[in-house]
Design brief:
By secondary structure, the chain is mostly beta strands. The chain has one domain: OB fold (Dihydrolipoamide Acetyltransferase, E2P) (Beta Barrel). The chain is 12% helix and 61% strand. It is built from 2 helices and 6 strands; from the N terminus they run ββββαββα. It has a 5-stranded mixed barrel. A hairpin with a 2-residue loop joins strand 2 and strand 3. It is globular, with a radius of gyration of 16 Å. Mean pLDDT is 85; it is low at 113-117.
């Protein structure tokens, strides 16, 4: 049997909000998905910019996503994709998206760490 090779990418950033968990009906079966936005810092033309990436975590990965909170830094391994939707003006919009396969927790916001150290 031939093994399927897939390209995986890594992105790192901070959560813009706590993950929201939904249940989707796929082929007649309920499947959980967690969604959240990730602020990914990039340098373009010598300037630091933030790119917002829409992240999805499916099935058993939802449990890992539930442990994440707004402001926490994570590194994600997975597949880059494009999410398409219709905005309020009726125009189709494409934005960067990411299907997360693995999560690596990198830490909390600096203010939270200082507050915990002082407690």
């Amino acid at each position: 049997m031939e093994k399927k090779l897939e390209n995986l990418e890594m992105i790192a950033g901070r959560l813009g909000k706590d993950p929201v968990v939904y249940t989707r009906n796929i082929q007649g079966k309920p499947v959980q998905v967690a969604k959240f936005d990730l602020a990914v810092p990039e340098i373009r033309n010598g300037k630091k910019e933030t790119v917002w990436v829409k992240v999805s975590a499916w099935r058993e990965r939802v449990n890992a996503a539930k442990l994440l909170h707004k402001g926490e830094a994570v590194m994600l391994h997975g597949k880059k994709c494009v999410e398409k939707y219709i905005n309020r003006a009726g125009a189709q919009v494409e934005c960067p998206a990411f299907d997360a396969i693995w999560f690596t927790f990198l830490g909390k916001k600096k203010q939270e760490q200082e507050a915990q150290a002082g407690a």
